[in-house]
Write a structure and sequence with these properties.
Radius of gyration of chain B: 19 Å
Number of helices of chain B: 11
Largest sheet of chain B: 2 strands, antiparallel
Number of helices of chain A: 14
Oligomer: heterodimer
Structural class of chain B: mainly alpha
Distance between the termini of chain A: 27 Å
Strand order of the largest sheet of chain B: 1-2
Order of helices and strands of chain A: HHHHHHEEEHHHHEHHHH
Distance between the termini of chain B: 55 Å
């Protein structure tokens, strides 16, 4: 673990800005994926509204920094808190709704939030979006790819440590109990309403922080960046990575962020032989994305985290496995 | 007043198509507890296949539809066999995600095969509008309403009286009891998916005749979700009633409220209704809650 962390901190020194940029996106997506996994993987409440919650975080930060002119360091936690509040609001139906019904309710949240963002022009700039700045501290601005990467990495580390500890506490254990059988959990004295809404709030907090970091990275927010496709991508991250696994969330986030990049290279290569391939890139990505999700669900429901554990176990005894 | 009735009529027609697609949703949910989020893509594919048969192979409309239906049934069987059967005992989220993945896969494939510009159906129904006391109705609307209603009635009769229909209801009611009575559950699942696909394709062909076909048509797969939730996921009658309610509400919102907020409300309105309904009746209007045991 320590080696991996050190590697994550050191590698920008060795590579170019493009790769560091991708790593930044991976780190931000990991924060969001961990957030979603707290809700879906650990508490068992399906949410198809992550995209919109990312948007809430991004827009909150944009409004605080650009419109009100306050500092980035202030905006990030506030973005998290505002998103947590919105998440908790849409989490209220979860007391009475289960499984599919809840999934649809969060889907409705996705559409309603995006509609509000698009139409509340005076606050959000409507479809044209808003422009953001990179943060600065004193005279030093985090303009370069490396410096912003370190901010994201620090937030990611905080998220990981917080989540690991969360599941050693009463709250985290309660979440797991709710996931496994919520009626049984209730009988054992867990207030379902409190804990479900709390799970929505904590999860949305991290998603909101991820949204704010992403907004400051791309330096623009606009409604189409937070469509239902984004929600599906985040769900794919935690499924491919492994439900209820923090390591899995990170692996899944990296996998899904890098997938289009790698496919892009694949298509570049193929277009040497088939010049028409470039027009097909978008469609090709969709097909691959769908196929990978189905593949993982059928053949490796435990996700990348499970594969990782298998590899680790194999090498524990290697070369004398038997 | 004429405007109101005009909106009402178009709401009813769109609603009837919603009801049809929602029927496919409910069937699959009842049989296998899965939510099929790839339904929109089934609609799209059905529409494209029929269009291609008519324009490229120059087949007559009825023959084209027939081939489309057979194709859709096969597609449904294949999907059930390859994607859903391995996930038979998987948790809800896996099944939802699998159908989302399937939707992506199919959307990508249609994109590769048919591109993404809007294509129009050739004139099939006569285009001289019919007027009923000042309200203008195009024949396409009239025809699709008639077709949908006759299909809905046919399916209701099928479920009530035919052997297969009864078997399907038995499986939906209690899978294990049905299996122990000698019903082949696998066959029932396969046929459920085939029917859902066929129904979606009919919806696609009708929608294509009204609006033309392009990739955005698959959005109906999401718009239908409020319909089935409103009616209750496990109620066929609910799907039909919900279809009409959502269709009319959407049309009214488009006609009266959209000018006030500057457009876009039409697509969101069904979801607002759904949130409100879920707050009051968590299992929809006709859905069954069921008792939970620990």
């Amino acid at each position: 673990m320590l080696i991996l962390t050190a590697l994550a901190f050191l590698f920008p020194l060795l590579t170019n800005d493009y790769i560091v940029g991708l790593a930044t996106l991976c780190a931000i997506a990991s924060i969001g994926a961990i957030g979603l996994n707290i809700l879906t993987g650990f508490t068992g409440q399906i949410s198809i509204g992550v995209g919109a919650f990312l948007g809430v975080g991004g827009y909150t930060s944009a409004i605080i920094t650009s419109t009100l002119g306050l500092s980035f360091w202030f905006a990030i936690p506030i973005a998290g808190i505002v998103t947590a509040a919105v998440g908790a609001l849409f989490g209220i139906p979860s007391l009475r709704l289960k499984g599919l019904y809840l999934a649809i309710a969060t889907l409705a949240a996705q559409f309603i939030i995006l509609f509000v963002i698009t139409r509340w022009t005076s606050l959000t700039g409507g479809t044209s979006g808003m422009v953001l700045q990179r943060p600065s501290i004193g005279g030093f601005s985090f303009m370069s790819a490396d410096s912003y990467y370190y901010i994201c990495l620090a937030v990611l580390l905080f998220t990981i440590i917080y989540t690991l500890n969360l599941f050693r506490s009463r709250i985290g254990r309660a979440f797991l109990a709710v996931r496994d059988r919520d009626v049984a959990a209730q009988i054992m004295g867990i207030n379902l309403f409190t804990y479900k809404v709390l799970s929505f709030a904590i999860s949305s907090f991290f998603v909101g922080v991820a949204g704010a970091l992403l907004a400051h990275y791309t330096m623009i927010v606009s409604p189409e960046l937070y469509s239902i496709t984004v929600s599906i991508q985040y769900l794919a991250m935690i499924l491919v990575g492994g439900l209820g696994s923090i390591l899995g969330s990170i692996l899944g986030a990296i996998f899904i962020v890098l997938l289009p990049v790698i496919l892009g290279y694949g298509v570049d290569f193929a277009s040497i032989f088939l010049p028409d391939m470039h027009h097909m890139l978008a469609a090709f990505q969709e097909v691959a994305f769908g196929a990978i999700i189905i593949f993982f669900l059928i053949f490796e429901p435990g996700g990348l985290a499970h594969i990782w554990n298998n590899i680790k176990n194999y090498f524990k005894l290697w070369p004398f496995s038997y | 007043m004429t405007f109101f009735i005009q909106m009402l009529v178009s709401g009813i027609v769109v609603g009837s198509i919603y009801a049809l697609v929602a029927l496919g949703f409910v069937l699959i949910y009842k049989a296998s507890d899965a939510l099929n989020l790839a339904n929109g893509e089934f609609v799209l594919i059905g529409s494209y296949v029929c269009l291609t048969l008519i324009t490229v192979l120059k087949l007559p409309f009825l023959l084209a539809i027939l081939i489309t239906l057979v194709f859709s049934a096969l597609l449904g069987l294949m999907v059930e066999k390859m994607v859903l059967r391995p996930l038979l005992n998987a948790p809800t989220i896996s099944v939802i995600m699998a159908t989302i993945g399937l939707g992506n896969l199919l959307a990508g494939l249609t994109h590769v095969v048919w591109g993404h510009q809007t294509r129009m159906y050739p004139q099939i129904f006569p285009d001289t509008p019919v007027t009923f006391g000042g309200v203008i109705i195009t024949p396409v609307y009239l025809w699709s309403f008639v077709i949908v209603m006759s299909l809905l009635i046919a399916f209701t009769v099928f479920f009530k009286f035919s052997k297969m229909g009864i078997a399907m209801r038995a499986v939906a009611d209690d899978l294990q009891a049905a299996a122990s009575m000698g019903i082949s559950v696998k066959k029932v699942f396969a046929i459920t998916w085939a029917i859902a696909c066929v129904v979606a394709a009919v919806g696609g062909v009708l929608l294509g005749n009204i609006n033309g076909v392009n990739a955005t048509m698959s959005v109906i797969g999401l718009t239908v979700l409020p319909v089935v939730i409103l009616g209750g996921l496990d109620s066929i009658a609910g799907a039909i009633v919900g279809g009409f309610i959502i269709g009319i509400a959407q049309s009214m919102a488009g006609g009266y409220l959209d000018p006030m907020v500057g457009g876009g409300l039409k697509d969101v309105f069904p979801f607002i209704i759904v949130i409100l309904i879920l707050m009051i009746k968590p299992y929809g209007l006709f859905g069954k809650g069921g008792v939970e045991r620990v």
